[in-house]
């Protein structure tokens, strides 16, 4: 197993190119299940989760090539409808095949994804919405068996909770359903917006894009002639590099970013005393003269993202004063706290709230990555800590950060990948 060895404290400088968004690419790849043509996706991030999903699609009968961030995908040959446990258990986002497979074939069997390190993560809202669209769903032997013998029917669906992959799944199902679907209380994340835009550009009548209410007129089972497109930049990768500048007290520039997708993150960095310059698709962070404490609550977009909570927690350990960080989306997304404590951080956890006593001197240690974003927080803290930190179990990082150590090394970090 690989691990990262990081020597701190470190100073960074230069420019880093941000990759395409993993969480946009995942639903967009499953979206091609609705197409009858070959589709080309550019700016595809070459990370483990994308490769896992492509393997799943290949098991279903699709063909794909991914070279130099250009993904060519042909799902016209798909002739299986079972997404099996072996792949789904390694990546929850595999559930994104449920809506498209059911819409296209009228039946499918998808393994239940199960829980994960950050919480329970049920899919009840996906299933309830599909049932409202006429699907008959049974759970047997760990699989969701879904059938819609007469095809899916348009429906008026109110999500009890805002769900990102739930919205994506049902939007895709509605695109091929019979009649009109109205979805209320939808996720408004940029990744969901891009999915809707590609559907619109591919001829689906969809309105309300970017709002919490979407109206979709389905094609009645007809597959789509899908357009080629470029995947949006990864706002969470970008936010993580902004934190890298802030935590190492360095000025760095990010290129190929959508600054408007990062408003909530930028606002918090500015409250902490950093300065951020925006020039088109470039963002430059200048460090704070003195890093100030912060109060933040994770919520759905456009509010502060849960996927940036761990990185800000790492940053808050160095700030002057006491920071309060509340996690509202996932019940168990504080696994990084005990690892940051191993580096010397002073953090008190009370339910969903972490109180971070700032200005803790951090010292290198062996730490263990527990999930994707927690891992990046450990890397950030390690770059600020005195001495050597070994971050173990970095397969989590490989799932979602493209070439992390190469990008950080090019900025001047002392970071190397080693084998246990
Ligand atoms: C997406 O997960 C992202 N994953 C996550 O990114 C991200 O943390 C999350 O949205 C929140 O922004 C992808 O896009 C692939 P949800 P998702 O459904 O869609 C509850 C990362 O690090 N809920 O919006 O699975 C759920 O338990 C990851 O890249 C139900 O109760 O999240 C949670 O409390 C990790 N029932 C809340 O809703 C359901 O049926 C939001 O979850 C569905 C969700």
Largest sheet: 4 strands, mixed
What is the share of helical residues?
A: 25-40%
How many extended strands? Answer: 24
Query: Structural class per helix/strand content?
Result: alpha/beta
Strand fraction: 25-35%
What is the count of DSSP helices, taking H or I runs of 4+ residues?
14
For the largest sheet, list the strands in their spatial order.
22-23-1-24
Task: Give the CA-based shape.
Answer: elongated
Overall pLDDT score: 97
Distance between the termini: 6 Å
Give the SSE map.
Elements: E1 2-8, E2 14-17, H1 22-31, E3 38-42, H2 48-60, E4 63-67, E5 70-74, E6 82-83, H3 85-88, H4 98-105, E7 107-111, H5 124-132, E8 136-140, E9 143-147, E10 156-158, H6 164-175, E11 180-184, H7 190-201, E12 205-207, E13 213-217, E14 229-230, H8 235-247, E15 252-255, H9 263-271, E16 275-279, E17 282-286, E18 295-297, H10 309-316, E19 322-326, H11 336-342, E20 346-350, E21 353-357, E22 366-368, H12 372-384, E23 387-392, H13 395-400, H14 404-410, E24 414-419
Parallel strand pairs: 2-15, 3-14, 6-7, 10-11, 18-19, 22-23
Antiparallel strand pairs: 1-23, 1-24, 3-5, 4-5, 7-9, 8-9, 11-13, 12-13, 15-17, 16-17, 19-21, 20-21
Helix pairs in contact: 1-2, 1-7, 4-6, 5-6, 6-7, 8-10, 8-12, 10-12
The structure holds ligand EPZ.
Please describe what this structure looks like.
With 420 residues, this protein is an alpha/beta fold. It is 31% helix and 26% strand. It has 14 helices and 24 strands. The protein has a four-stranded mixed sheet with strand order 22-23-1-24, covered by helices on one side. A four-stranded mixed sheet has the order 2-15-17-16. It has a four-stranded mixed sheet with strand order 4-5-3-14, covered by helices on one side. The model has no long low-confidence stretch (mean pLDDT 97). It binds ligand EPZ. Ligand EPZ binds next to α1, α5, α6 and α12.
């Amino acid at each position: 197993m690989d691990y990262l060895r990081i020597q701190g404290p470190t100073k960074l400088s230069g420019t880093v190119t941000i990759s395409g968004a993993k969480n946009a690419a995942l639903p967009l790849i499953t979206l091609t299940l609705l197409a009858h043509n070959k589709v080309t996706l550019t700016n595809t991030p070459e990370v483990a989760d994308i490769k896992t999903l492509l393997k799943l699609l290949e098991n279903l009968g699709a063909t794909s090539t991914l070279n130099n961030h250009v993904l060519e995908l042909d799902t016209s040959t798909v002739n299986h409808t079972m997404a099996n446990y072996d792949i789904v258990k390694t990546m929850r986002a595999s559930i994104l095949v449920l809506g498209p497979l059911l819409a296209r074939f009228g039946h499918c069997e998808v393994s239940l994804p199960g829980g994960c390190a950050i919480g329970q993560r049920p899919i009840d809202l996906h299933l309830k919405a599909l049932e409202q669209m006429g699907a008959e769903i049974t759970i047997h032997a760990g699989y969701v068996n879904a059938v819609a013998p007469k095809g899916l029917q348009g429906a008026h669906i109110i999500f009890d909770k805002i769900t990102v992959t739930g919205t994506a799944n049902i939007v895709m199902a509605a695109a091929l359903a019979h009649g009109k679907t109205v979805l209320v209380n939808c996720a408004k994340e940029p990744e969901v917006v891009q999915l809707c835009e590609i559907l619109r550009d591919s001829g689906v009548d969809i309105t309300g894009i970017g709002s919490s209410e979407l109206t979709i007129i389905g094609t009645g089972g007809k597959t789509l002639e899908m357009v080629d497109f470029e995947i949006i930049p990864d706002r969470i990768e970008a936010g993580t590099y902004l934190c890298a500048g802030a935590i190492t007290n360095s000025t760095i520039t990010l290129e190929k970013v959508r600054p408007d997708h990062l408003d909530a993150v930028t606002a918090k960095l500015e409250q902490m005393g950093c300065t951020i310059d925006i020039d088109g698709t470039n963002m430059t962070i200048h460090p704070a003269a003195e890093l100030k404490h912060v109060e933040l609550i994770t919520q759905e977009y456009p509010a502060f993202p849960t996927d940036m909570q761990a990185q800000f927690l790492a940053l808050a350990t160095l700030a002057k004063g006491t920071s309060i960080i509340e996690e509202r989306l996932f019940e168990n997304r504080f696994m990084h706290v005990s690892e940051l404590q191993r580096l010397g951080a002073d953090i008190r956890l009370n339910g969903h709230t972490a109180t971070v006593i700032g200005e803790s001197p951090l010292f290198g240690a062996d730490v263990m990555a527990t999930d994707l974003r927690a891992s990046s927080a450990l890397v950030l803290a390690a770059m600020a800590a005195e001495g050597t930190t070994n971050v173990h179990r970095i397969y989590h990082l490989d799932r979602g950060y493209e070439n992390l150590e190469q990008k950080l090394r090019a900025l001047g970090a002392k970071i190397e990948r080693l084998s246990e």
